[in-house]
Specification:
By secondary structure, the chain is mostly helical. It is built from 23 helices and six strands. It is 61% helix and 4% strand. The strands form two sheets. It has a four-stranded parallel β-sheet, sandwiched between helices. A two-stranded antiparallel ribbon has the order 4-5. It starts with 5 loop residues before the first helix and ends in a 14-residue tail after the last strand.
Length: 531
């Protein structure tokens, strides 16, 4: 078991910040490329540090995504949760069924490929999220630079996202939807970047590349979650409507059609495949997705103000107050591409309004897909306020380096390092128990034969045990009937000697066919993390 002291984690976070600080100095001296490389290095180090400090799988939802991804390493087109469905299951229960089409497959394929390369370990599992989180910083920089033509705004937006607490934590599994959500916002952000590049390259041959890339990335975003990823085409439509120099050219609308065709070619084949290959599960999941709108599923409810209340979680406690001023500045400042300002702000607010007013299932990750736009608006607000202060009080220009002070405050607010460190306290009972169990599960392979079904796993832990061992696993002791059913089907059966403090039943203890795995399992009745 790897346990990192909080002082060590704090030191590692400070070291991760050093390239970021040097990056700011490089940009100040006009060395953009070097500064950008250092910025990306810092973004990756933050994500690597936090991801590798969590040496266990989070229960909601990382363990499910990890397990399906592991199975897809060998069978990429057969997504399964339990490789040994020894007992009857309900195909409608996404947390314990067999064929698993609860989520679209792209993020799972990425994790499977990463584990093929780096091994079945935490780095292999979480590396795609670290990489996509880092590349998102680059995309934000490029979008902001196109939008505002201001390198200062682009750097501040990218830097604040590089240290975004939520974007770092969601890539570790700490928040629900975890790696799937990272892939979703990354590909949606890539589609928005491609659209921006298309907008400034219209009339050149390069525009056709970005028409294709917009469709490719939008289709990939759909292939991570679902049709909300088509948001980018709403922004594209607004660009055409608001640009009088282009909206009278019919072929511009054909460009959207071409891009949508590419998008469809990316995500439709998987839908047709699962409808044919897994008809029961796929029909149920499509219906389940639609019910997110009309019902608060899986207990995820909240008021219409739910997402506004979560602004401090996504951005920090100070940064949200700069979003609306950023919207105003983006509209009135002549140096910005006003059509892009309209499209970006519209996409940002449409997502919040849609999930606040029309969708009854509330999950804080639903709106984070537009958080990168929010960070650009925050950066616009910050730089505009600094510039207007200098214009108002010219003497401030002699002390312009003092602007680093409010910028450090904003960076601290975005990162919230105390929260990152405090939730990783080794004294936390849940965390300590989770790490001890993980170390145990990784060590018992030698005691378990192939094609074994293991019972008496602690609650919520059967998925994690299957991730580390090629066995079937179930929580709790089996009933006498279930035990005989599994044995009669030819499976080898093993049980832990204890389960959440309960002793092994006599009918299991007296059955010589059952392998008894004697371990000292950490006992915990703590609630699984549902952040």
């Amino acid at each position: 078991m790897i346990s990192i002291p909080q002082q060590t984690l704090t030191f590692e976070l400070l070291c991760s910040a050093i390239p970021l600080l040097v990056s700011g100095f490089c940009f100040y001296r006009g060395r953009e490329k070097v500064g950008l490389v250092l910025l990306l290095m810092s973004a990756f180090l933050f994500r690597l540090t936090i991801a590798m400090s969590d040496q266990f799988l989070y229960e909601w939802d990382e363990q499910f995504h990890a397990l399906v991804a592991r199975h897809m390493m060998d069978h990429p087109f057969i997504p399964v949760l339990r490789t040994f469905p020894a007992l009857p299951y309900d195909y409608r229960a996404w947390s314990c069924n067999y064929y698993w089409v609860h989520k679209q497959p792209l993020s799972l394929w990425q994790m499977a490929l990463s584990m093929k390369i780096f091994g079945i370990n935490f780095f292999g599992l979480r590396f795609p999220s670290m990489l996509m989180g880092t590349l998102s910083v680059l995309l934000i920089y490029k979008i902001a630079k196109i939008w505002t033509a201001a390198i200062s705004i682009a750097w501040v937006a990218a830097a604040l996202f590089a240290v975004s607490n939520y974007s770092i934590e969601i890539g570790t599994g700490y928040y629900g939807s975890d790696h799937v959500e990272v892939a979703y916002y990354f590909y949606e952000l890539a589609a928005i970047w491609a659209l921006c590049e298309y907008y400034i390259s219209t009339g050149s041959k390069r525009q056709y590349l970005f028409i294709f890339l917009t469709g490719l990335f939008a289709g990939s975003a759909v292939l991570n979650l679902w049709l909300v990823a088509l948001l980018v085409y709403g922004g594209w439509g607004l660009l055409l409507i608001t640009d009088s120099s282009k909206n009278k050219e019919p072929y511009r609308y054909l460009h959207i059609a071409y891009s949508l065709a590419v998008c469809a070619m990316v995500f439709l084949p998987w839908q047709l495949y699962i409808l044919h290959r897994f008809p029961l599960e796929s029909h149920w999941e499509y219906e389940f997705n639609q019910r997110h709108i009309t019902q608060a599923l899986d207990g995820h409810s909240g008021t219409n103000w739910y997402y506004l209340q979560y602004l401090p979680v996504h951005y920090g406690y100070v940064l949200p107050f700069l979003i609306l001023p950023g919207v105003i500045f983006s509209m009135i400042r002549k140096g910005y591409l006003r059509q892009l300002s309209i499209a970006m702000c519209a996409m940002y607010f449409v997502i919040y309004l849609f999930f606040s007013l029309l969708v009854l299932t509330r999950m804080h990750s639903f709106v984070f897909v537009v958080a990168p736009i929010g960070y650009i608006l925050i950066s616009i607000s910050f730089i505009e306020l600094i510039n207007r202060s200098v214009n108002r009080w010219p003497q401030i220009a002699h002390y312009k380096l003092l602007a680093i002070i409010p910028l450090l405050i904003l960076g601290y607010d975005s990162l919230r390092p105390k929260e990152l460190v405090n939730v990783r306290s080794n004294d936390d009972p849940y965390r300590k128990s989770a790490m001890e169990r993980t170390a145990l599960y990784r060590s018992i392979s030698a005691q378990l034969p192939d094609s074994c079904v293991l019972f008496a796993c602690p609650e919520y832990n059967d998925m994690q045990l299957m991730f580390w061992n090629p066995v079937g696993a179930y929580g709790g002791f089996p009933s006498e009937k279930d035990l005989q059913t599994v044995l009669s089907e030819g499976y080898k059966v093993a049980v832990f000697n204890k389960c959440e403090g309960n002793e092994m039943p006599v009918y299991i203890a007296n059955d010589s066919r059952v392998i008894k795995v004697v371990v000292n399992l950490p006992i915990s009745n703590l609630k699984a993390n549902e952040k």
